[in-house]
Amino acid sequence: MNIEIIGVGKLGSTVAFVLLPIADKIILTDIKDLSGELLDLKHAAKGLGLTTEITLTKEKNPDYVILCAGRPRMDEKDILDDNYITIVPILEDLTNRISPDTTVVVMTNPVEKMTKFVSEILKCKVVNPEEELMKIRDNKELGWEIVKSKGYSNWGPSVSVLNLIENQLETRC
Q1: Cα 146 from chain centre
Q2: Helices then strands, each counted (H, E), the chain
Q3: Strand segments (E) across 21-92
Q4: CA 61, 69, 161: angle at the middle one, nearest 5?
Q5: Peptide bond into 129 cis (omega under 30)
Q6: How far apart are the first and last CA of the chain?
Q7: b/e per residue 32-64 (b: at least 16 CB within 10 A)
Q8: Which end of the chain is more exposed for a tag (fewer CB within 10 A), N or C?
């Protein structure tokens, strides 16, 4: 399974790490230089005894695209405006590279509104891991509490993506 992660900051890099065991290939995409991230993840995969290929080369028709690009949580109106501006060129690029069989997982905040926006533009399955995240958090909205303490939330959301993909794979079999 090929997984492209767009936006490889704190959340995107954690998502990449968590998905190493289930991916055949992870494609890292960002506007910044990812050469250090690439090496670090390759070493992590090797240290875990995994053969996951990690690359910076975009390709057509990945099985999953994990959309993490954008600013972290802040005032919802500001983040919505900023992240729309960030997401539009990404979606333009994706329309030329994905197939109807690609699943896009939206993690860009505000997740619910961004998922709706992305699903209106892309001709594929668009989901978000919110339901899985709420299971992990015992159905409590703890995101802001985590953000107030450490400035961002990455581990729980990353595992929610893993759970979402694994559940989809189970239902396909």
Answers
A1: 19
A2: 7, 6
A3: 25-29, 53-55, 64-67
A4: 65
A5: no
A6: 14
A7: eebeebbeebbeebeeeeeebebeeeeeeebbb
A8: C
C-alpha distances in angstroms, 85 versus 29, 75, 100, 153? 17, 16, 24, 22
Q: Residue 105 pairs with which residues in a beta bridge?
A: 66, 127
Asked if residues 16 and 44 have their Cβ atoms less than 8 Å apart, the reply is: no
Per-residue pLDDT of the chain (173 residues; tens, 9 = 90+): 999 999 999 999 999 999 999 999 999 999 999 999 999 999 999 999 999 999 999 999 999 999 999 876 655 556 777 888 899 999 999 999 999 999 999 999 888 999 999 999 998 999 999 999 999 998 888 887 888 888 888 999 999 999 999 998 877 65
Return the SS3 of 69: coil
Q: Kindly report the pTM of this predicted structure.
A: 0.92
Q: How many residues does the chain have?
A: 173
- Paired strand residues for 27: 4, 55
